[in-house]
Design a protein that fits this description.
There is one protein chain. This protein has about 375 residues and is of the alpha/beta class. The chain has 12 helices and 12 strands. It has helices spanning about 1-10, 35-50, 70-80, 100-110, 130-135, 140-160, 195-205, 220-235, 255-275, 285-290, 305-320, 335-360; strands at about 15-20, 55-60, 85-90, 90-95, 115-120, 160-165, 170-175, 190, 210, 245-250, 300, 320-325. α3 packs parallel to α4 (about 100-110), α4 packs across α6 and α11 packs across α12 (about 335-360).
């Protein structure tokens, strides 16, 4: 038993995630249909499992630029084609959904997948706040919505019969929320961008902390990770109950130069057409792009050696135990996504795990 606990403590999970964007290929000008995109997502999940990755995530956006608006539905389809890989939302915009409905959906997914479902809950990226208007919520309640709904979601996760009263949905009085997940509770993470308050809340609530790290210097995450662990410890949680994940954009090719040359057009395409950075002054130049892929920066683009170096640098800063990449932005064709998955699994994952076992410590 002691050996099993030590192995679990030293484990480091790898995965991939997607939002299913429908950006036109910058080279051909062709766009895939939503149907093809969803089929490619299922194929990527199957490949990720076959290659040995641990986690597959599906996020949500509610605009015509994305194929995925219903993560539990897509993940249920993935569950029928996989047997082992964990299935997570990446992220669920909790502020615009009913926590009761959300819990029912993911508990059902958990049963269909033999206990593999997780939820990463967040407030929504600032670039995609149309979701609030679409579902009838006001941005003036941005923080209050999440605070209320994450507390209700956690209560549902711990109690089969729920009594609760809040501002944003009808009162619950000894309400039974069913079905229950296979293990009794769902693993819950909170997605955090840049605010210490969000990190502290995740620790106080005993949820996992999932950093959205798309750009910039990862050293900015260290005070947030420290605040998370301090708040969790003060609330009575053990270190192993406070996992940290890093989620970000990436692309892996056999060599660093090949990765940079292949990926830059897709990266620029994504930020122009999805992030709406159409003013040349707002867009990242090729030189800025290459600088942002260095070991001390977040963007995970390069050959396997560069990705290993980046992960180890970040682990030294924040001690994360999960690393998941979005490999398919801006029209990257499935064949290139598949190659990145295989390189992540075969040439990055074993090296990182060997290095970490040599250190004999994970936070």
């Amino acid at each position: 038993m002691a050996a099993d606990r030590e192995e679990q403590r030293l484990s480091f999970e790898f995965g991939v995630y997607t939002f299913g964007d429908l950006t036109r290929d910058p080279h051909s000008g062709r766009a895939v249909s939503a149907k093809q995109r969803l089929e490619e997502i299922i194929a990527a999940a199957r490949l990720a499992e076959e290659a040995g990755l641990d986690v597959f995530g599906v996020g949500e956006h509610h605009t015509p630029n994305f194929a995925v608006t219903a993560p539990p539905v897509v993940l249920a389809a993935v569950a029928r084609h996989t047997k082992r890989i964990k299935l997570t939302s990446a992220t669920t915009v909790l502020s615009t959904v009913d926590p009761v409905r959300l819990y029912e959906d993911f508990a059902t997914l958990d049963l269909l997948s033999d206990g593999r479902a997780e939820i990463i809950a967040g407030r929504g990226a600032m670039a995609f706040l149309d979701t609030y208007r679409l579902f009838g919520y006001g941005l003036t309640d941005y923080d209050a919505l999440f605070e209320e709904k994450i507390n209700l979601l956690l209560q549902i996760n711990h109690e089969e019969s729920v009594s609760w009263k809040g501002r944003f949905r009808p009162e619950l009085l000894e309400a039974g929320v069913a079905p229950r997940p296979l293990g009794g509770k769902l693993p819950l993470w909170i997605g955090v961008g840049r605010t210490p308050e969000s990190a502290e809340r995740a620790g106080r609530l005993g949820a996992g902390l999932a950093f959205a790290q798309l750009s910039g210097d990862p050293s900015r995450l260290k005070p947030l990770a420290d605040a998370y662990r301090a708040a969790g410890k003060a609330a009575g949680y053990r270190p192993e109950q406070l996992p940290v994940a890093v989620c970000g954009h990436g692309y892996i090719a056999p060599t660093s130069r090949q990765a940079l040359d292949e990926y830059y057009p897709y990266h620029a395409n994504y930020f122009e057409h999805i992030m709406q950075k159409r003013n040349p002054a707002d867009r990242m130049s090729r030189e800025e792009f290459e600088r942002s892929t260095g070991a001390a920066y977040a963007l995970a683009v390069g050959g396997p050696e560069q990705i290993v170096e980046k992960i180890m640098y970040q682990h030294e800063l924040i001690g994360h135990s999960r690393y998941i990449l979005q490999l398919d932005i801006g029209g990257v064709p499935y064949a290139k996504v598949a190659r990145s998955i295989e390189l992540l699994a075969k040439e990055v994952m074993p090296v990182v795990r060997r290095e970490l076992r040599g250190q004999r410590r994970l936070y």
